[in-house]
Amino acid sequence: FRRVLFRSIRLDARHQGVAAGEQVFEAQLPVRAAGALYTFDKFLLAAAIIWAGVGIADFIRLTSARRTESSRRKGFQDLIVPFMCRLFKIVLVVAVLIYLISCFDEGALMGRFLAGLGVVGLAVSLAAQDSIKNLFATMLLFADKSFAVGDKVSIGNHEGTVEEVGFRSTRLRTRDDSVLILPNSTVAGGTIDNQAMRVHQRVAIQFNFDPTASPNALLELQQKANSALAEKSEVDVKRLEVSLHGVSEKGVELRVAAYVRGKGEKARAFRQEVTLAILGLSQDLGLKIMTDS
Predict the structure, then answer these.
(1) Is residue 151 within 8 Å of residue 162, measured between CB atoms?
(2) Closest by alpha carbon to 187, among 208, 217, 157?
(3) Local confidence band at 25 (pLDDT 50, 70, 90 cut-offs)
(4) Which of 93, 104, 132, 170 is packed most tightly, with the most Cβ within 10 A?
């Protein structure tokens, strides 16, 4: 009877031990699974936020680029939109990192991370003083609309066509086909002559005639040239000047100064047309044009 009783007690104890172990395992399994799911959920949320934010930033940048793709003149929006998109991506990644640290840390790691971030920001700001100055100068240039890509400008002693305007510098294509790079702080602080904003282009030509020529012939040449130029629609008649300026060692000076509506090629074509017209009139009137030789 004792043997049977002890055996039944041992079997009952074993059964209770197995049941207790199963209960402990069943209690620990949900905790471990919940922890893994919590970690996976947070990282998945962080990845989804970064993916969505980067996609939205790229969409805005591409939309802005396509909108102004066919436009010759580029404004502040074409420069600030890509910069703001890149800045947004950096801020988004930093914010997501702060969020993940706050989810798995009680505060010590967060404090170290923010302190390190502050030190990095201070170092970058000290190292990029000139870049920050150029950045504000760029904003002033675009806000003032001083020039745009494709404009022919004179900045101080430099002249050329604007090829690119960046946050740090402006690139000019000179007459010698070289590229001149000017810091935007220098450009904003200098004198800017934007020739592309001219409504009229001034064309000035001087001819020297033989001083022994007939005064009547010279006067007739001046009158005919003035009348011919005044009839042209692209010439501003109010500022047209065709005059016998005086006599110098080179001969009798005939000066032609006209303001032509248009730019570049139109002004050059007008200069050529006036030169040929004066040559034709002088030959008809028997006047000799003097040259340096």
Answers:
(1) yes
(2) 157
(3) very low
(4) 170
3-state helix, strand, coil in the chain (%, to 5): 60, 20, 20
Half-sphere exposure of 45 (CA within 13 A, CB side): 12
Orientation of helix 215-230 relative to helix 265-284, angle to 10°: 150
pTM score:
0.51
Note whether 145 and 129 are within 8 A (CB).
Answer: no
Structure tokens at 26: 């069943």
User: Where on the phi/psi map is residue 177: left (φ > 0), alpha (ψ -120 to 50), or beta?
Assistant: left
Q: Nearest 5 degrees, angle CA 181-CA 201-CA 248?
A: 105
Residue 14: exposure state from Cβ atoms within 10 A (0-12, 13-18, ≥19): exposed
Q: Which tokens in the block code for residue 209?
A: 């005639």
